[in-house]
Structures are given as structure tokens and as C-alpha cells.
């Protein structure tokens, strides 16, 4: 613990961040593609919800192979999204409302259309050759050409992570897709070029960065083969050799020293594959001068199959949630780090469909249960667009052709190649897509009951780039923000109230202490949060069953101040003894202090 008396409050700790997935947010010119003016148009909506900062997924020039995570020019905006002037306007309008902008910094790789890569691949002696990771082929005993090692591609359904370049007769590393070559961070000129990109955006008025897979930038330099962990595959997960590699901390400290320390920024590093506590604290520890916080994948990996397979199904229950949340909450408190809180983003299915029940009967309750959890844990809250409405996954009936994500398309192709005409296997694959594909969170935002959910203007020739979920007539922002029914609260209004309450009691919810409460239960996850002056308890039933829960005597509930079954701020429930919780019911209680 840091010495007492040190002020731990920071604007980026108690701020609420809202992630905009720009292609699906709001289309203002009728081309079916969301745009920057669409974001600017909705700032009042976000401000009303309680948002302080927006993080916009990549809007830079891009061939859109991976929805902008393949950047071909870091200093320009893709015409589909608008122009640099539109971004200046967005920043101006944000500032007027005392809000901030975070850009998505994708610098583990670029697009294969970036001028750096075009130069790099033009010849072996090009000055930028070394800005990417090039290696000669290997040959097997029969003289067949093989990639330099056995690493598998992340979005390419277990193909090789290396792509062959005919012209210069070498392989380049491309961990995500062939169109996303990995940058070589060993090269100091490349690092300086990245620093320059960061300064460009900070000078323009952005306030920080979400850093895409930033823990993959340092690779073990002899590029060893990965252990064979997936026997059925030729290529193997190589994360041991590229996640949190040997020079990661050096590179992050350099970014901090040369760029971030000159500005007042918020930084969050997206970090898949990291579980080690020392490693996490080395990045987010308050004395470390690296990043403010990271996105840990523990909660969103909860239903991965053993071996970390995401496109698979795996059972979980409230005990897993309790173990994961407790570990991260305690780690940050005990070792002076900082958490980010998220259950949804553009790479994950919708949280209400995944963790609760998205049927018409329980969708509203489930979305509020998750809100109750997100707004009462310690750390910086991230809300993903549509989460505040309880938007659902794609319905099971949709044809696989409605899925647009490169990862899903590769998966579906692979499954069809592997099991041609095997109805059962292909149905299983479709089920997995419907439950886990990234597309689930990428459908257009549901603004209203108007055609195309109000996402795109009817005057346009083309419809939305991705199909709108059919339930938009009932699940939409207009209905939830303006349809005020006395005694009822929409998911949106519940979020609004919860965020306000969180800020009013930030010493507890943002900065306070944490302990799980009661016995481990497969259904109920309960925890206490407290400061010197106040204490609260959250009791969350993560099951579709009615449950009796014994309130531990020392919790000391004085009043149930919120719950997802009622709009009341004084919920009539027992304060000691046995508490009956309905399906997906969550309660927040104010407790005696000490
Ligand atoms: O994601 C990185 C990542 O490793 C995962 O979230 C991955 O996309 C997921 O497990 C696959 O199902 C980031 C971006 O958020 C993602 O959209 C990009 O595709 C990826 O990096 C490459 O830039
Ligand atoms: Ca548009």
C-alpha cells in the first residue's frame, strides 16, 4: 500500500468511458456507414447518460479488412468516416461539454497497404525493410517451403502467422491476418515514428489512447517454435513468445517518458493472454510510469473452452465470477494498481445474452443486473455502445452470410471445409457464432423505432453495412430515454441513475475497499465496498432460479437502496436473515460503517 495521505484521486479513475464503434454508431450521410459527424450528433445523449470520455474504435484510413484495425495512414481519417476537420469539430464539441476523446492506437501492426509496409516489401534493402518482421523460409526434408516457425494466426483460424512474399522471397509476421503485418519494435526509427503519431493526436486535442494489443509489441527474438498444445492443428498458439515479451516494459516506459509524460492523458492497454499478477502490476502500478490501466480478459474469457478457445462454448457460474473479480479487485487495492471494468466491447458478444438471459422476459432485468455489478466495482467504468440499452446478440435464425467479421468468416469457411455437408457439425458452428462471434456487438446502434432503427438515413441508396437486429422496434434508445412511465425504469435510465450514484459515492465505488461476502455460491455473487465513511453491499443473482441467500450477520444492511426489480430507492426486502432473490435479481444495500 502506498503511504497514507497521498491523494489517489485522478480524473481518469472516476471518469466513465463510453466506447463508440463508429461504423455502427450513427450514419449521417446515408451511405449506410456510421461516421464522425454521427458521433458529434450524439454527444448530448452521452453526456446525459453520464459519460465523460469517449473512446472511438479506429477511424483512420484503412482498407477495412479488420474494421479499421488495419491502418493504412495514422494521420488521416478514412473518407467513410469523414475528415480530420470532422474530428476537430468533434473535439471542439466534446470540450464544450467538458468531455474528452480517446483514440484507438493500433501499433502492433499496420495494414499491408500502409506506405511503410509498401516500402518495406519493395526490396530487401529498402530502408524500411526492418520496420516489419521478415524471415527466410525453412525447408522440410522433402524440400517443401515452411514458415519460420509454427505460430498460428489469431484471426485466421489456425493458419500460419507468417505470410509469404513472392517478390522478395521471404515471410513476414502477421499475427492477426495476412493484411496486418506486425511492426518491428526492435527498430528505434519505427518506435520514433509511433511516438510521432501519438504526438500528432495529442496535439490535435485527444486526451489519450486505448492501445490495441499493446502487450504483443515485443517478440522473443529467436522466434522459437511454440509447444504443441493443440494436437489436431499444425500451427500452435505462440503467445508465450509474443505476449509480454522481453522488451515490453522498456518500450512502454519509453512511450511514457518521450510522449505521455508531456501531456495529461488516460491510457488503457488491451492485453490478452496476461494473467500473471507481477506482470500486471509492472504495467499499472502507480509508480511504474507505464500505463494507467489495462483491459484484462479474465471475465470475457470465462466461457472459453480449455486451451483458450474463444469460438467454443463452456459452462461457468457465479463462483467463477467471484474468483475472477475478487482477484483483480484485491490485486489493485493491495498493490496500488488500477482496474478497468468492462463486460462488453466490439470483440465480444453482448453481455446480457452471454452472462444473463436475453429472452423478452428477462433481458431488461439481466442488463440491469450487469449494470449494478459494473457500477459498484472499483476501477474505471467502460460502457460499450448499446450496452446501456441492453442490446442483444444476433438472433439464431440469421443466415451466416449476415456475419461480416473476418474472424467469423474465416471460422465459417474452415468449418465448411472441414465438415462438408455434416449438418450437425455445421449447426453447432452456427450456434457458436450466434453465441460468441464478434459480430454480435457490431450490429447498428438501435436509436429508434424508425426504419433501420434510426441508424441510417432512408434517403441513402444503400442500407446499413450490417443488418439491424430485428427487435429494434422495442429495444431502442428513444423508447428508453423518453418513455417515462411512473414507477418504471428502462435499462438506460437504470444506467443513468447508477452512474450518478457511483459518482456521488466515488470514495466507496471508485476508490474504496472490496471484499466478497457470504459463502461461495453457484448463483449468487455478493460483495461489500466501503470507505472510511460509507459502506455498500451488492448481492447479485447470476441465475434464472429463485434463490434464498443468508445475509451474513456482519454485513449490517441498513437499507436496500436499489434493485433491478423496481425503480424505488427504498427496496422492501429483509435486512437480516434470509433474503429471497428472484431470477437475475440484484440488490444494492447501504450498510453500517465498521
Ligand atoms: O483485439 C485483440 C485480441 O487479441 C482479441 O480481442 C481478439 O480480437 C479476439 O480474441 C478474437 O476473437 C484487438 C482488437 O480489439 C480487435 O478488434 C482486432 O481485430 C485485433 O486487436 C487486431 O488489431
Ligand atoms: Ca456515413
Automatic annotation (TrEMBL):
UniProt entry keywords in alphabetical sequence: Glycosidase, Hydrolase, Maltose metabolism
Pfam families xrefs: Alpha-amylase (PF00128)
Residues in Glycosyl hydrolase family 13 catalytic domain copies: 19-442
Presence of the UniProt keyword Hydrolase in the record: yes
GO BP annotations listed: maltose catabolic process; sucrose catabolic process
Species classification: Eukaryota, Fungi, Dikarya, Ascomycota, Pezizomycotina
UniProt name for this protein: Glycoside hydrolase family 13 protein
Domain of life: Eukaryota
